[in-house]
From TrEMBL:
UniProt KW keywords: Cobalt, Isomerase, Metal-binding
Function: Methylmalonyl-CoA epimerase involved in propionyl-CoA metabolism.
Protein name as annotated: Methylmalonyl-CoA epimerase, mitochondrial
Top-level lineage group: Eukaryota
Residues covered by the VOC domain: 35-164
GO annotation, biological process: L-methylmalonyl-CoA metabolic process
EC number of the protein: 5.1.99.1
Length: 164
């Protein structure tokens, strides 16, 4: 009858045997990528930018801190799940000065992602031909080691790794 015809014409679904699960096929690293720590924004006027986030948008905004070894002033804007870092040039050789010459009104400068072992991350990334912008990590705005990855190796994004 009809039931027999339906049973014989129904497609058969087979599963293919897999010798390895997906997680087993991903090579393990000695380090692990963590959470987004902050998004950095270069600003031509630090006081105006602080006022926007504090007075207009109602965020908690830190005081400006000079980081001479990086050539920047930093201000952190606290968000619920991450931070914004406002960057302003400090000194003539500031990398933010050259960024602002190309981007007069400012803009996104970099993203910062935490790692659990920055030295292991740098070693492995160099082996994978990802260029780092300094030979050794430097101490960043949070007092922890940081290193920057070349934007041309990261799809146009300047990536900062920070020791968690």
């Amino acid at each position: 009858g009809l039931l027999t015809r339906l049973q014989t014409s129904a497609p058969t679904i087979r599963t293919l045997p897999t010798s390895r699960s997906l997680s087993q096929s991903i090579p393990s690293s000695l380090w692990k990528l963590g959470r987004l720590n902050h998004v950095a924004i270069a600003v031509p006027d630090l006081e105006k930018a602080q006022a926007l986030y504090k007075d207009v948008l109602g965020a908690r905004v830190s005081k400006a801190v000079a980081l001479p070894e990086h050539g920047v002033y930093t201000v952190f804007v606290e968000l619920g799940n991450t931070k914004l870092e406002l960057l302003h040039p400090l000194g003539e050789k500031s990398p933010i000065s050259s960024f602002l010459q190309k981007n007069k009104t400012g803009g996104m400068h970099h993203i910062c992602i935490e790692v659990d072992d920055i030295k292991a991350a740098v070693t492995e990334l160099k082996e994978k031909k990802i260029r780092v912008l300094s030979e050794e990590p430097k101490i960043g705005a949070h007092g922890k080691p940081v290193i920057f990855l070349h934007p041309k190796d990261c799809h146009g994004v300047l990536v900062e790794l920070e020791q968690a």
